[in-house]
Specification:
This protein is of the alpha/beta class. Helices cover 43% and strands 18% of the residues. Strands 6-2-1-7-8-10-9 form a seven-stranded mixed sheet. A three-stranded antiparallel sheet has the order 3-5-4. Helix 1 packs parallel to helix 3 and helix 2 packs across helix 4. It binds S-adenosylmethionine (SAM).
């Protein structure tokens, strides 16, 4: 059962409303297998209210009744909760710091052990802009340094619809606003509908996979993990669990990039050192 404290909701909710809210979260788990029971109630509440407004109801009780009569509406509610908002090179400064300080260190370490590939995980990749940005950035650094190391990117999400769009790799112009004109011309092909398709070269570097960072085994031997704008929705206990999973997933001295909005309280200081606090870059100890 959903059992988060009601005090965590922000404004107090009447008993019936609280009960309906908890039932909605439990039903999502039962009907769709996605477990939001330990996500922060305040964030969930905001997202569910957006879902409520989509179907013009004004209370959790009414919404629960609506969902019971229209179970297919759980799909759009799920989309509302998982919000896939993202863009290419989101938070330019973070990408700049990773490009200048992190990637060269990883390449150096790889050369020392004669490794043939760099392994990167974009966890909570939404519609793919983040892993494609990583593919573009790392390819550019490797070509500047004239290094011939393979790039393997694992891009995962719990949202299957978002993953389908990610795999298609076709974007509206506004998703590309942080890219330089030269990069758009070199890495995308504009189609007849005015949409931009990413070059197959970058697609081939990325494995898109359905994966729940809370309940699935962490992926192994990662040099770099990006997990941004996801775990802000998680309770402190879940955040801790996810950071522990990322610790397991990383090679020694591997890097974890959390989002600018993430609070790093759940980080275990004996596991990670703060490599660049401003850009939320951590290094495994
Ligand atoms: C706001 S998007 C962030 C996209 C990208 N990381 C960025 O910062 O631009 C959050 C994504 O996290 C995904 N997500 C939420 N909970 C997840 C979980 N437990 N495991 C994997 N992905 C999750 C959502 O489906 C959504 O696509």
């Amino acid at each position: 059962m959903y059992d988060s404290e009601s005090k965590d909701f922000g404004d107090a909710l009447p008993e019936a409303e609280l009960l309906a809210f908890k039932k909605i979260i439990n039903n999502i788990y039962r009907c769709r297998g996605v477990d939001f029971r330990q996500y922060r109630p305040k964030c969930l509440r905001r997202r569910i209210i957006v879902g409520m407004h989509d179907v013009r109801v004004n209370s959790f009780v009414e919404y629960l009744n609506f969902l019971i009569k229209n179970p297919e509406a759980y799909d759009s509610l799920l989309n509302r909760i998982t919000i896939n908002v993202t863009e290419f090179f989101r938070n330019q400064e973070t990408f700049k710091a990773v490009r200048l300080k992190v990637i060269p260190e990883i390449i150096k370490a790889k050369k020392e052990i004669h490794a043939s590939s760099i392994r990167v995980w974009s966890s909570g990749c939404a519609t793919g802009e983040e892993p494609y940005s990583l593919a573009i950035m790392i390819s550019e650094v490797l070509s500047e340094l004239r290094e011939n190391i393979k790039i393997r990117i694992y891009a995962t999400d719990i949202d299957k619809e978002a993953l389908k769009l990610a795999e298609a790799g076709i974007y509206k112009e506004k998703a590309l606003k942080e890219l330089k004109g030269r990069q758009v011309n070199a890495y995308f092909k504009k189609n007849e509908q005015g949409l931009y398709a990413i070059n197959p070269e970058f697609k081939s570097m990325i494995n898109f996979m359905h994966h729940n960072m809370i309940s699935d085994e962490p992926l192994p031997r990662m040099d770099l993990i990006f997990c941004r704008n996801v775990i802000i929705y998680f309770s402190k206990e879940l955040q801790k669990l996810v950071y522990d999973n990322f610790y397991k997933a990383l090679v020694p001295q591997g890097y974890l990039v959390a989002g600018k909005t993430e609070i790093l309280m759940a980080i275990n200081e004996s596991c990670f050192e703060r490599f660049d606090l401003q850009e939320r870059i951590l290094r495994k100890k």
